[in-house]
Amino acid sequence: MVRDYETQQRIFEHVTVASTILNNSTTAAAEIDRVLSTAFRHRRPVYIELTRDLVSSPIPDISASVNYSYEEQIDPMTMAESVEELHI
To answer: Residue 35 half-sphere exposure, CB side, CA atoms within 13 Å?
Structure first.
């Protein structure tokens, strides 16, 4: 953290197409979906920051209310190659 709570996000807004700070477990899944959908739609980087106090917080079941549109656009072969390159 440089100055205040949102300084890093404001910096990354200049070089990303979307950004979010995940500070509420009830809206986290929708925010992740929004940002990742934007990344896949525009083929540009995004910024997702997770606050330390929510690292272990469960996300409520929101499967009916989240779009997950980016999942349809993932090529399985490309994903497998990416994972292999990461040595996971």
So the answer is: 18
